[in-house]
Amino acid sequence: MLNYIGRRLALGLFTIWAVSVLSFLIIQLPQGDFATTRLAELAAAGNSSASFEAERLRAEYGLDQPILVQYFAWIGQVVQGDFGMSFDWNRPVGDVIGDRLALSMVVSVAAIIFTWAVALPIGVYSAVRRYSVGDYTLTFLGFLGLAIPNFLLALVLMYLGFAVFDANVGGLFSAEYENAPWSFAKAWDLLKHLVIPAIVLGVAGTAQLIRIMRANLLDELKKPYVVTARAKGLSERRLVAKYPVRVALNPFASSIGFLFPHVVSGAVVVSIVLSLPTVGPLLLRALQAQDMYLAGAIVLLLGVMTVIGTLISDLVLMWLDPRIRHAR
In terms of C-beta density within 10 A (0-12 exposed, 13-18 middle, 19 or more buried), how is residue 308 classed? Predict the structure, then answer.
């Protein structure tokens, strides 16, 4: 087990390095740089010294250096825990991301908990009661959840909240807690506001996992070991819960690796609609402004989340399924 974890960690470090290279190169693909964007803004404002200001920015941030020099200077800082300066915000990247990354993780965890809490029992019910009225109803709702875009669901819930309940469902905090220091009251206010983002971000994943769980469990219920256990008189509820459900849980465990970054990166439009202070809108703004250090840090952190999630997924799979444990 230790050797396996060691190999996975080594592969994870290599993957993170590859992600850092690819993210830095991709961010450099658009023509121009932050100084070019700044030059256009100053010229539009009628600033006569716009060209001089752009050259000063290139020299100050090293944008006039070759791309390899820029990359190694950036990755050298990252290894030391310094993600560089944000051009657009004129602050250290770590300070800009700050609470936004933590709030993004909280929203992601809430969406994943909602996804699993809803998808698991519904998937089991649909498989055990297949072709029943409940199965057809839940299947219809599942396809409806897959078809509705997240941002459209967010708009509908915002309208219903305002028109029906006379409440603002946007944001993660009430107005009095927006800039207040952390306290139990602020944490409780955050939990109350997490419900809508968790539902909006989790609906599509929930619908998908319901179908996967149903299909896998139906396949397992036809296996000889289930028929043998049923023939020996094991109760149906205990039979389903003890054996086939555990094997059918593999897709849930394997989804851990991509759920975290998927929720964070896929929530850009939803975060804008719901006014969520997460890293999604921050990444969009950084890409538009060609703020390469801020955008590169966010993309790199998404890659780290993917690697960590994949490692956790592998370990959970080994715990759930002995076949995987012995096959490694």
Answer: middle
Q: What is the mean pLDDT of residues 168-179?
A: 78
How far apart CA 318 and CA 249 sit, in angstroms, is: 12
Beta-bridge mates of residue 85:
92
How far apart (Å, rounded) are the C-alpha atoms in residues 177 and 71? 40
| Six-digit token string for 38 | 């700044």
Return the number of other C-beta atoms located less than 10 Å from residue 241's C-beta.
Answer: 12
Other Cβ atoms within 10 Å of 126 Cβ, number:
25
∠ CA 29-34-39, rounded to 5°: 125
| DSSP class per residue in 130-165 | TTSHHHHHHHHHHHHHHHS-HHHHHHHHHHHHHHTS
**Contacts with 194 (C-beta within 8 Å, 6 or more apart), sequence order:** 106, 107, 110, 172
Q: Which of 41-50, 56-65, 72-81 has the highest mean pLDDT?
A: 72-81
Residues across the chain: 328
Cβ neighbour number for residue 152 with a 10 Å cutoff? 14
How many helices, marked H, and strands, marked E, lie in the chain? 18, 2
Strand partners, 86: 91
Tokens for 215? 């299909």
Pairwise CA distance, residues 36 & 174, whole Å: 38
CA distance 175 to 69: 45
Cβ pair 281, 272 in contact under 8 A: yes
Residue 174 phi/psi, 5-degree rounding, is: -70, 165
Structure pTM?
A: 0.77
DSSP 49-113: THHHHHHHHHHHHTTTS-HHHHHHHHHHHHHTT---EETTTTEEHHHHHHHHHHHHHHHHHHHHH
Distance CA 16, CA 13 (A): 5
Separation between Cα atoms, residue 209 and residue 228, nearest integer Å: 28
Question: Over the stretch 4-23, which tens digit does the pLDDT of each residue have?
Answer: 777 878 888 888 888 888 87
